[in-house]
Specification:
The complex is a heterodimer of chains A (440) and B (251). Chain A is α/β, with parallel strands linked by helices and 440 residues long. Chain A has a domain of 267 residues. Chain A has ten helices and 20 strands. The relative contact order of chain A is 0.09. With 251 residues, chain B is α/β, with parallel strands linked by helices. In chain B, 39% of the residues lie in helices and 28% in strands. Chain B is globular and about 55 Å long. Classes of the chains: A alpha/beta (440), B alpha/beta (251).
């Protein structure tokens, strides 16, 4: 079937399909086949789709990114990699869409924590994966999910059991090293009841054009507690499409910190379904410079009563950058006593920068407390004068105020080494004359 | 120290100050009083360099230099300090950061090295005690969520640390209860010295019970209509401003 959106990717990738992981598993093969069929019909999302109206992805169709199906890792600059690796964390490295056991270091991981490459997990424990892959997200969500389902080459599987409280974080480093590579990964994170963990997803790449398609499915069990960080610092020529899809059981707590700094075009979806009395906190900071386009799309779905959700996304946009925030909060009929607050604040530093913000509340219950707010503005002249009257020159005052605006989100990071890294990454992207990190 | 000669200032087409003359010497405390709309705040703003005003005539020299030609931060580094009537809240910037940035800017301006971290903390903590503030204030964002009294106290704290030469206090007493007023006044009094001058802009006399001025000037309709000693403030308290405004109209 040919439609206006028909993509040339399915034909180009047809030779790769037999080489993908998990092809011996009939259930997965079926899912991949269905996904491929769906993607072939739909192509990439188009502007007329409501949830893609601000983000034009046609450039991906004009280029052709190719998955790397053989596992051999190309040259990885270890020093460069180290600059992104956190001390005091278990480290998992995926190179061009493949788990690298050599570059990962998982020694001393407690027995109740299982961390495996997705391809390995599909061979060793397929019956577990069958219960989780495409269970937190559906290929009907949008065609990038179908795209990822059809062609993911590897990914990661993390499972905490037995009330394990993980004291050090797990850092998952996705690195892209090759020109025009497609890095398509699927990650499944499962926290059994009463477990706790912090996991950091980091996306970086060499100075190339490439495409990252990263879908993470998360299952947070009863009374479990997950803090998930995403630091997206892709190359400035790269395309990034990432999604985190979460199912929270009752009393489960989930915090997400989304730092969207890199890529030419980036889109992140963060969706979470809350059960009875579960809590979620979604924090985001997007920094756009030059011609970057950064889209963040969140959905908080209160399905049962007494859930609490807090969301704050902040954007700083300079040059001709464009930031998009679409946040949806859905409160189902049974979700009485829901307490939800969603905010999006944008700071525009240039006349050509643009912020599009669309908060949506859909409330079907009648006894709830829900609020939302959006601001788009420039630096406050009164604040600039106040700082000047305190001896600070105007340029420094502007830099300090810009940084202060962003720093509210950086300050929420509780892992010291990660806080430091994100601070440095944020400072890199804006004029920092006069901003003294040591004093903050 | 400060010499204001025939100063005329407009906002847009509207003249606000219409020929101010004022000489202020080191060691002196001047109170500028006057009814609302007389131009008091405009005078403090124009001295500190706030934009939005046009000087149509006259000059202001500060320590022999043309004050009006300096950008606000240079005035501040040269020792002009404005304690704001409405201090601005700056989320994300801690008090201690601002104090350090300000103090180091002054030191750099005078060719000195950055302040030693330990010396800085000792200095700041001493002043915090002087103003009976909690040390936690230092680590909170500048004025964010502060009460009116806390904001004013914070202004005086900054002043105490930066040790300016010319301190302009814009309606510092507004919004203060009597206890806060006493603390703020003690802070100001502790800074009195022979090489420092104060300009206190105020509507009411009550601040002057605690900080005794050497001179009182009454501003009405953009001009100084009467000058005198501290006793003039008491006279104003008794009679109000109308007799002076009436005089001016009659003249």
């Amino acid at each position: 079937m040919t439609t206006a959106n028909a993509s040339r990717y399915p034909a180009e990738y047809s030779n790769s399909v037999p080489l993908l992981c998990g092809q011996s598993l009939s259930w997965l093969k079926q899912q991949r086949t269905n996904a491929l069929l769906q993607f072939s019909e739909q192509g990439f999302p188009a502007l007329h789709e409501e949830e893609w109206r601000y983000t034009n992805v046609s450039a991906i169709e004009k280029k052709l990114f190719s998955p790397k199906v053989n596992k051999t890792t190309g040259f990885v600059d270890v020093e460069w990699l180290k600059s992104y690796q956190l001390e005091d964390a278990w480290s998992v490295v995926l190179v061009d869409g493949h788990f690298s056991a050599e570059l990962s270091s998982l020694e001393g991981l407690p027995n109740d924590v299982l961390v495996k490459g997705m391809a390995d997990a599909l061979e060793e424990i397929p019956e577990v994966l069958e219960r989780f892959i495409n269970q937190a997200v559906s290929v009907d969500e949008h065609s990038f999910i179908a795209f990822n389902t059809a062609w993911f080459t590897d990914g990661l599987f993390v499972h905490l059991s037995n009330k394990q409280v993980l004291e050090r974080p797990i850092q998952v480093l996705h690195i892209a090293t090759q020109q025009d590579v497609l890095s398509a990964t699927r990650t499944v994170i499962i926290l059994d009841k009463l477990t706790e963990a912090s996991i950091i997803e980091t996306y970086v790449g060499y100075d190339n054009a490439y495409l990252s398609s990263a879908v993470t499915e998360v299952f947070v069990g009863k009374n479990a507690d997950l803090t998930l960080y995403k630091m997206q610092c892709e190359s400035e020529k790269a395309y990034h499409f990432g999604g985190v899809y979460v199912k929270q059981d009752c009393h489960a707590r989930f915090r997400h910190h989304n730092f969207a700094f890199g890529a030419l075009l980036a889109r992140s979806d963060i969706h979470t379904d809350l059960d009875h009395a579960s809590e979620c906190e979604l924090n985001g900071l997007y920094l756009g410079v030059k011609r970057q386009h950064i889209d963040n799309h969140t959905r908080i779905n209160h399905t049962k009563s007494h859930g609490i959700s807090r969301e704050l996304y902040k954007g700083v946009l300079d040059g001709r950058a464009r930031g998009v925030f679409q946040g949806r909060v859905i409160v189902a009929k049974d979700a009485q006593k829901t307490d939800s607050q969603m905010n999006n604040r944008n700071l525009l530093l240039s006349n050509e920068a643009e912020a599009d913000s669309k908060p949506q509340l859909e409330i079907y219950a009648d006894d709830v407390k829900c609020g939302h707010g959006v601001t788009v503005g420039q630096l406050d002249e009164k604040s600039i004068f106040y700082l000047q009257s305190r001896c600070v020159d105007e340029e420094t005052a502007r830099n300090i105020l810009t940084f202060a605006f962003a720093n509210e989100m950086v300050d929420k990071v509780r892992i010291k080494v990660l806080h430091e890294m994100i601070l440095d990454q944020a400072l890199l992207r804006f004029p920092q004359e006069g901003v003294n990190k040591e004093w903050l | 120290m400060l010499s204001i000669k025939n100063l005329h200032v407009s906002v847009g087409d509207k003249p606000i100050l219409k020929g101010i003359n004022l000489e202020i010497n080191a060691g002196e405390i001047h109170a500028i009083m006057g009814p609302n709309g007389s131009g008091k705040s405009t005078l403090s703003h124009i001295l500190s360099g706030k934009s939005g005003y046009t000087v149509t005539e006259g000059s202001v020299t500060y320590q022999g230099k043309e004050l009006l030609e300096m950008p606000p931060e240079i005035r501040a580094r040269e020792g002009v300090f404005l304690a704001f009537q409405y201090p601005v809240e700056i989320p994300g910037v801690s008090n201690i950061y601002l104090l350090k940035a300000a103090l180091n800017s002054i030191r750099k301006h005078h060719g000195q090295s950055e302040v030693d971290a330990m010396d800085f903390l000792t200095l700041v903590k001493g002043k915090v005690r002087l103003l009976e503030m909690d040390e936690k204030f230092l680590y909170r964002a500048v004025n964010e969520g502060f009460s009116g009294g806390e904001k004013k106290r914070n202004e005086i704290l900054q002043m105490a640390i930066l040790e300016p030469k010319l301190c302009i206090l814009d309606e510092t007493d507004s919004g203060l209860d009597i206890d806060a007023l006493k603390i703020v006044s003690e802070g100001v009094n502790s800074l009195r010295s022979t090489d420092r001058a104060f300009v206190m802009v105020t509507h009411y006399q009550r601040l002057l019970d605690y900080i005794k001025p050497d001179y009182v000037h009454v501003l009405a309709n953009g001009q100084i209509v009467k000058s005198g000693g501290a006793e003039l403030a008491l006279e104003l308290e008794e009679k109000g401003y109308s007799w002076l405004e009436d005089n001016q109209v009659a003249a």
